[in-house]
Amino acid sequence: MKIRGGQPRGRRLQLGVRGRDGGAISALNINRTGAPMSGSEPLDRAASSLVPPTGGKTRAKDSFDPIRHQLLTGAILLATTIVALFSSGAVLAVCGAALAAVHWLSGRRWARAIEKAREEKRFLDEQLIQSQKLAAIGELSAGIGHEINNPIAIIGQEAEWMRHLLQEEPGKTEEISDSLREIVRQVERCRDITQKLLNFARKMEPVFQGVDVNRLVDDMAKLVEKEAKLRSIRVIRIFQSDLPALFTDPPLLRQVVLNLLNNAMHAVGEKGAITITTSASGRDFVNIVVSDTGCGIPKENLGRIFDPFFTTKPQGQGTGLGLSMCHGIMDRLGGRISVSSEVGKGSSFSLALPADK
Amino acid sequence: MPLSPKVLIVDDEERFRTTLGKLLTVKGLQVDNVGSAREALALLGENNYDVILLDVKMPEMSGVEALAEIKKINSGIEVIILTGHASVDVAMEIMKLGGYDYLLKPCPVEELLAKIETAYDRKREREGRGPKL
Amino acid sequence: MEKFRVLVVDDEIDFLETIVKRLQKRGLDATGVDSGVKALKLLEGEHFDVVILDVKMPGMDGLDTLKEMKRKRPFMEVIMLTGHASVESGMQGIQFGAFDYVMKPANLDELMEKMTQAYERKTLHEERKSSGRSGAAGSVRG
Questions:
Q1: CB C33 within 8 A of CB C43
Q2: In the CATH scheme, what is the code of domain C5-131?
Q3: Of A14, A130, B127, C125, which is the most exposed, with the fewest CB atoms less than 10 Å away?
Q4: Is the pLDDT of residue A35 over 50?
Q5: Could A258 and C94 be called an inter-chain contact, meaning their C-beta atoms sit closer than 8 Å?
């Protein structure tokens, strides 16, 4: 299977995908989350739409149950019609046997067709993931371009200014050193960005250790508390005392929690509250939720906040890597991060970590 | 009538706009600089700028939005957009809105200066004053 | 408890001497220096498992020292010690690879616990590296 000219168009990616036998399967419009958009239905949904909605239970492990159900429904309908026509028990029995045979045969045919469709879907999925990766790289390089070009532009100008001073006004040594200092500062800024990117790209496997979640969260809360107090932001802790044991990478989890707290502080600005909640979902998951009473996130941004370099902060104040880094870390820890938000009311970021690793 | 173009730099990177201002000033231009589109719009009423250098990515009001506003207030001003990364979409939008040119950061001051001068000449020509020599 | 090597870096000499003594009493092989530059110099010739590093020091501050330390010894774990909790420095410290942050005045039991965890992490990390598993720390995939 080959991607035929996957070309990014704005934020979407259009794909023409060919089947292994060379025939076109379908053209899909995908967005970056991989959810199919207008254009064509995914095969799964197309297959399931064949099946009428049923009230009865279907066995989950039998993957062809819906189809069998449909055939049976058809058989019963047909049988009922025949009964109505002939009112004969004998005919009904014959029809019943024939239908059972048809059902069995077509079940197998369907099974093969669906298996084939599923296989195609697997290939399609792989292609989609691949093209999503390409799209992500494209976006990433645009982001890097912007983040790095600004400091480089400043460095270039400072160098030109220094050249001017050295040629025309060499006595102004203080101004020359000021330009030099600025160059060093901007180089540092570039280095921070590349460093963060490297950390971001580094597939450093997490080191799992036993962690007392409440204490870890409490430690990070302490780091923000002082500044919060100065800005009349209350930090409220609602900790569940008997959390299941958690094996995770402590510094990585700290990084995520602190990032969320820092974002919450930014969102609130002044006067408000940040609530940190820890809880367990059964014995399987430990949840950490950071909620704020801040400005909230507009709906149109909600889908992009985990994208690398997406930021609403002014130039130089945020690289837009924080939340995407959190997302990456949570992936590596086997957990999840999710967000809910309402403009003007606040945002809530939830972390779910598997309790048993 | 000013003999050299009057330029306004709009960029939220303070150091970028101040040093650029100094570099253009020593080349004989009259330069002001501000850190946001809002401040720029406020200045337009009382000043007759010839060329505006406008950053694209700024908080609150982006350069593209600002461009539309500037053209509403005074369509005669030539606007050169500066940006950290090229995007076809943004470039198209800028041209549609009447932006004069589009420059990628970082760019040498000489190149920028040349663009400012041709933009200025064009403005004067349109105003019927003929090109500057 | 396993005896591991600890380096304490703090410009307050009184605090430094006291904490080194107390850590030694607890059975650790502890050394103290009063500046980031001295710490980095010491690292050229010696190995430590865990570093306790003061954030606010004159000259080379804790964050710069941390960056250099992590560059030189990526597996050595560093615990930042801070008198003034600051979100920004916390974010940076953790970003640059600090294991944890401890607020001054530090409770010794708490510090011991964190150091033990940091040491455990270092051991786990090194074990994995020596067992040659893929995706070893520090490798960057293009």
A1: no
A2: 3.40.50.2300
A3: B127
A4: no
A5: yes
- Alpha carbon of C51: minimum distance to chain A alpha carbons (Å): 15
How much is the mean pLDDT over chain B? 87
Judged by CB atoms closer than 8 Å, whether chains meet at A164 and B104 is answered as: no
- Asked if the Cβ–Cβ distance from B23 to A161 is below 8 Å, we say yes
The residues on A that touch C, with CB distances below 8 Å, are: 195-196, 198-199, 201-205, 207, 209, 219-220, 222-227, 250-251, 254-255, 258-259, 261-262, 265
The 10s digit of each residue's pLDDT in A137-179 is 666 666 677 778 889 999 999 999 999 999 999 899 999 999 9
d(CA A175, CA A80): 97
**Mind listing the domains of chain B with CATH numbers?**
6-59+68-108 (3.40.50.2300)
- Chains meeting A at 3+ CB pairs closer than 8 A? B, C
Please tell me the total number of residues recorded for chain B in this structure: 133
Q: What is the 3-state secondary structure of chain B?
A: CCCCCEEEEECCCHHHHHHHHHHHHHCCCEEEEECCHHHHHHHHCCCCCCEEEEECCCCCCCHHHHHHHHHHHCCCCEEEEEECCCCHHHHHHHHHCCCCEEEECCCCHHHHHHHHHHHHHHHHHHCCCCCCC
Chain B's closest residue to A183, CA to CA, is: B15
Question: Is pLDDT above 90 for A89?
Answer: no
A3 pLDDT more than 70: no
Structure ipTM: 0.82
**Is the Cβ of B59 closer than 8 Å to some Cβ of chain A?**
yes
Structure-model confidence comparison of residues B20 and B122, the more confident one: B20
The full set of domain ranges for chain C reads 5-131
**Measured CA angle at C92 (ends C137, A212), to 5 deg:** 70
Task: Please tell me the predicted confidence (pLDDT) of residue A82.
Answer: 43
Q: Domains in chain A, please, with CATH?
A: 16-105 (no CATH), 127-201 (1.10.287), 209-354 (3.30.565.10)
Interface mutation vs chain C, best among A191, A192, A205, most C CBs within 10 Å: A205
Contact call for C87 and A262, based on CB within 8 A: yes
